[in-house]
Amino acid sequence: MSNKILVIDDDNALREMVGIVLESEGFEVSYHDAGSGALDKFKSSQPDLVLLDVMLPGKDGIEVCREIRAVSGTPIIMLTAKTESDDVVRGLEAGADDYVVKPFDPGVLTARIRARLRPLGGNSEDTVTIGPLTLDVVGHEVRRGADKLSLTPLEFNLLLTLANKPKQVFTREMLLETVWGYHYKADTRLVNVHVQRLRSKIEEDPDNPKIVTTVRGIGYKAGQA
Amino acid sequence: MKLRGAVNWALGLFRRSLQARSVFSTVVISGVAFAVVGGFLSYSIGNGLFSTRLEQVLSESERAVVEVQNTFSASSVTDEIALQTLMNSVVPNLESSGSSDTRQIALLRSPGQSTAQILQSPISADLATEIIPADLRTSVRKTNGKLLYQSISLTVDGVSQPGIVVGAPIEIPLAGKYELYLVFDLSSQQETLDFVQGTLLLGGSILLLMIGGVSYFVTLWIVRPVRVAAAVSEDIAKGALDRRLPEKGEDVIAVLGRSFNKMADSLQQQITKLASVSKMQQRFVSDVSHELRTPLTTIKLAGDLIFNNRDKLEPAAKRSAELMHDQIERFQVLLNDLLEISRYDAGAVHAELEVQDLNGIVGMAIAGIEPLAMSKGSKIEIEIPSGEVDAEIDGRRIERLLRNLLANAIEHGEGKPIRVAVGMDEHAVAVSVTDSGIGMTRAEVDRVFDRFWRADPARKRTSGGTGLGLAISLEDTNLHGGWLQVWAKPDEGACFRLTLPRRSGVIFNSSPLPLPPIKGVKTAKEAKK
User: Fold this and answer.
1) Which residues of B touch A13 (CB under 8 A)?
2) What CATH fold (topology level) applies to the domain A4-117?
3) For residue range B195-254, what is the model confidence (pLDDT) as tens digits?
4) Is the pTM value of this prediction over 0.80?
5) Does residue B449 lie within any of the structural domains?
6) Are B377 and B446 in contact (CB under 8 A)?
7) What domain range is B513 assigned to?
8) Which residues of A touch B (CB under 8 A)?
9) How far from A7 is each of A51, A113, A156, CA to CA, in Å?
10) Is the reported ipTM for this assembly greater than 0.90?
């Protein structure tokens, strides 16, 4: 079964071209051309992944990202023209999993998409516990006691990666490779922002984290130091 | 030491404070004026007192001389004893007559007479005849009945006082020539003069103090607005552009305030305008970035798709697809460079500094450029110090900068080896990239960092640089507070040396590596992959 991808971009030529590239790679593509109505299109097309332009008429991509994230954990990759500006960080904070900077190579785009759609493998256990949390690896669920916590697939992968090797310190580069699938030096802001988002969902006091802790100057680890 | 400190403090105050200087000058000038006026007053009062007293003294003396002469001329005494009695009566008579002031009398026999002196010269009890000047006595002897006088100084109770001695010749029958001297005391006049002078001095001093005080307050009153203006200027210079001076009244200070405020207004307007222009430019760059990047993305995706399927195309179309693919790459690099340099122009670039190993960054830059070096047949020789070369730098920018220097060296190195050296000292780290290629002339070196400048316009462009590489490299260097310097000689090669502070903000004044590079001294090692 081919994966469905929703491309939200206001530029007709780029939208069509991205569609051609993705379809030639075997994806099933649907399209939307504005910020307004994007959420309805998302609900009706039920995509496996969203490609979202940051600058959209009507409603900007960051707002759209927030709306989608409110109802679903579907992977979102932002298309951005600016690397230096706050757009990247704002998009990640709004819940985007990754971003691609224009102009991008078709190969880079499909690699980023596949990395987000690939299931996290290599796990022998069905359930993993970390502090007060229980991770159901098969069902992609996290519970604190009886309460189910709603994590996006990316956040789940991030937490599972840390939980699988408790006490090991992961550098940001290691997490970028394991969770995001980057084999080359990438933007460490991805890790920082998503760890913050993860903490806000799983920690009782996100300003004083106990489950995912920071190791100053190195990276992150599961459990307390 | 304490005194010197006080003097230094006073001098410092004098130099710094306009007010201190004004008060000091006013007091000094007034003091001099008072001294001149006071001196003149004191002199003329003293003179007036003296001449009044002198007139009185002379008229009294004249009466006394006539009386004494008459006494002797009219007397009919013939024996010495009677004459002596008469003479002795002269002194008490004269002492008690006339004004209330005390006077002293001496009736002295002129020396050098043929007749023998038998009679005693009568003298007032406490008069010392030595105080009568000898030259006065000589003059009196020569005169014919005229009164002569001279100012002298009397010592009364150990205190020196001014006085006048008046003398006249007297003819005493039977006894010969005598001289009558009357000594007058001027102490009461001196007292008056002292009192007047004291009053002048006291009054002058009080006046001087008051003038000092008044000028202190007046200058305070004038200097205060100036001080306020200075403080406000300082604030404006620090960036508080909306600070203004109070505009009260119509005087010169108010005019100063108004002019100053007008100046500040126009300054603020200009700066606000410039700031908005700069903001507009940044906005423009950002818009251009988005507007150009979206179509470029489409072109790139389309170009890549065609390029990947080029084997299915006719030979001409295939070659076209290849050319288009390369040129899209070039266009993308050029756009990135343009945007990068616009960001620098807009001041929107911030270094992400982190302490890291410069050797590692040099290694990554060389690894990144290796394919180009291989295709040109240039061998890269590296010479790096053992151990970590730690420096607080933006690794991404420095790697890009070094890649750029390496690409330049390869492009102009004519396939000869390229040497990369890393150096470190206490304050700075350095990397130099040296080629042995065509080099540059002095004039070319001067322009090497200019935008879109190429050493030889006719030269073939091989590696497809944008012409902005070195300009961006220089901006990156400045962002770190470092140096990017170049040495070159035609047909000998060129050397670019980058020197960076080891920690952000550290001032260094020499580089750990030499420029121009010393050839043959260093042992070049083979580049290790």
Assistant:
1) 295, 298
2) Rossmann fold (3.40.50)
3) 999 999 999 999 999 999 999 998 888 888 888 888 888 998 888 888 888 888 888 878
4) no
5) yes
6) no
7) 354-526
8) 11, 13-14, 17-18, 20-21, 24, 55, 81-82, 84-85, 102-107
9) 5, 12, 24
10) no
